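How a chain folds remains the central question behind the approach discussed here. In the encoding step, the backbone of a single protein was reduced to a row of integers, each denoting a local shape. We regard such an encoding as a compact summary of how the chain folds. The sequence in question and its structure tokens are set out directly beneath this paragraph:

___
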Amino acid sequence: MNFDDLRKAKQVGPDMGEQVKTALRAYILSQHPNAEGVSFNTSNSIWDAEEAVRGMYASLLFLGLLLGAACLFATALIIYYKQISEGYEDRERFQIMQKIGMSKSEVRKSINGQVLLVFFLPLIVAGIHLCFAFPILVRLLNVLMLYKVSIFIQCSILVYLVFALIYTLIYSVTSKTYFKIVR
């Protein structure tokens, strides 16, 4: 394939960059036989730039997933062990309240209210923070050449719901353990 054929080609494939470089080099050498020292910087083609951008996006995705999972796991453990330690501290108080007439259902209602507050208040605050940070995050994504705001909104809602689901699972485990300790 010569340079003129490449110029007329309508389709661009993944190996098109190399074909263009080879054809351009052959064309220059056919026009200027003394230009043996002509070389092409391979990092300046659009195909190489696209590959570099995809690599950057993949790296950012990996880091985001890794850091998100680590932070979620750490938060879950901190809240779980905080509630368990508070359960051991509250055991005597709830036993005293039961001795003076507080029923098991009232104890369970009190425990659920306390644990609900500790678990879901951070989730609500995170949602509020996301709403206020949204314009800045959109600008940051524009810098990374990601312009579809609708996809960002969908991803944000999905991630928030996944975190809420995980928090709900951790809440149910912690609530059961807390109730067993206080009993």
